[in-house]
Request: fold
Amino acid sequence: MKKVASFICKHKLFIVLCSLFALIPAVLGMQATKINYDILVYLPDDIETMKGQDILTEDFNMGSFSTVIVDGMKPKEILALEEEFKTIEGVEKAISVSDITGTTFPIQMLPENIAEKVSKGDSQLMLVTFHDSISSDETLAAVEQIRSITDKHCKIGGMSAMVLDTQQIADQEILIYITAAVVLCLIVLMLSLDSWLAPLLLLGNIGLAILYNMGTNYFLGEISYITKAISAVLQLGVTTDFSIFLYHKYEKSKQLYATNNEAMSAAIQETTLSVAGSSFTTIAGFLTLCTMSLTLGADIGLVMAKGVIFGIFSVLVIFPAYLLLFDPLLQKTAHVKWLPSISRISDFTVKHYRKILLVFIILCVPALYGNANTEVYYNLNKSLPDDLSSSIANEELKETYHIVSPSIILVDDSLKPSEIEQLSKELNALDGIDMTLSSALFSEYGISESMLPQSIRSIYQNGDYQAILINSTYETATNELNAQIDEVNKIVKRYDAHGIVAGEGALMKDMVEIADHDFQVVNSISIAVILIIMIFVLKSFLLPIILVAVIEFAIMANMAISFYLGTTLPFIASIVIGTIQLGATIDYAILLTNNYLNLRKSGVEKKQAVGDALKESCDSIFVSALCFFAATCGVGFISKLDMIASICTLLSRGAIISMGTVMIILPALLIVFDKIVLKTTKGFKGGKQA
Reply:
């Protein structure tokens, strides 16, 4: 490492120029990276509901559909609007009851249970189907064009409209997220560092790493809007402390070495050794998200793990070059630190460690209870503001037409009309299902197949499958709807063993089940992986258990606060928060513990060792936690997308809670378990230094 450090110091100008030239492919790659705004595409491809989506796309040319509420238009105008919609690229069909009744036949002549589902007062429903999937560029562009054509005469509901609104908000807010994170971090760094220029160089260096990371996402094919929104602020919050550590080491080394190059070489070597263990745990924490069955976890995990690697590279290679190049200006812009030292907390912690442990044990009860009972929601509608076009349309469909969770049942084409009719009756008899539409239903009311336009007939029968449309009055992703879908599945399988229940409700049911499984698996794996890494890093058996226990308490306390505040969290937040908070803040505990072990090895008594280690570590932990808080709290306040706001709010709060537990609870545990810790740590024998 010494030769590498010397090379960096010797070729600082070359490294600076290379870092700037590397921005060109990074920016191009970032612009070319496709962003996905549909969470449902991250479901496993081999589950039955996803296979149903493929059948709808390939056999029925119905990759997605939207329900359009048409206000104040006559049948003739509606038919003309349908034709206009059909000319839009991506639109497969546009059909309404006017296709059956024409311009003179009154809707009231239709069976009552059909008429009330398609017309209320002066409004009618129109079904628009699209060739491609819910979130494809072609489908979203088509929805946007439909909105521009209809202006105020129509409201468009459904998943594609929701995805389009999500895309527009996320694209509008992403720059605001980053700006808020940078400004707040800059304030913290200005207060905590001793130079006006140093914070700008530090944040500029991290900015380069973020751009490199975002640019290389191009090779992943696409990333989710959640990953795009939080990865930059997370990378900023997680890797800032590495840069601060190098800067402080460089400033101290300048007092010991004759030249700046020698001082920086020593600082690089020391920083490499210090951040190696903590960076491994952070990377491992993010990579454990890749074990999720919901592949959104892999999306976030890979991008963030890659971001930490770029962050470490920029800290050890690029940042030193900038510091050396701008060293004269660093000296000219020096100032006294404005952020007061909090090292006095060590005296309080050591003096009252027994009381602290008692309070810790007492607090475990509400933390465990609150964590276990924190409510989460899976309904994607709830993550969007109520005043969005799609939210307004979906609410009107629910309140006026009682269309809440439509589903499509796919059965074999060989089923007889009498079987389809009987199946439809059984489905309609289920509690919560108020409508079934099939070819058999029209026949039952004397509307022969020949009387139906081809556009409508192709909805119900195409290729090797017949389709039955059902509507549930239960909200998606609720226990009621999930139980109902189970009953629907049982009935369908009696008629066709290979029958499939497709649609948003069935997809969200799978999402609930997979997410619940992921929550248990990911947290267990992240704890196990980080424990194993820390056993090698700390060369101890008991210490990793203590450290993980402290951070896990912080995570539970963080989640419990949401419970006691009555906050319902989006399911993604509840899954990823534990892994991210553990991986990102375990560094605080490792820093304190390493200092404690070094002091114990030098013969310092346990209480003195813990107190001195805390004095040496607390300012670094404080600044790191504040930077993490600053990088994420602004997004939590600003974002209109609850999926993003909740994750960032939890992370900002988690950084402060983890800081508190490491600075108060961990020292008390180290004092109590000192003898056992030394016995189970390499370098000590019989509870003393070997």
About this structure: The longest helix spans residues 504-538. The radius of gyration is 30 Å. The first strand starts at residue 34 and ends at 36. The CA atoms of residues 364 and 553 lie 7 Å apart.
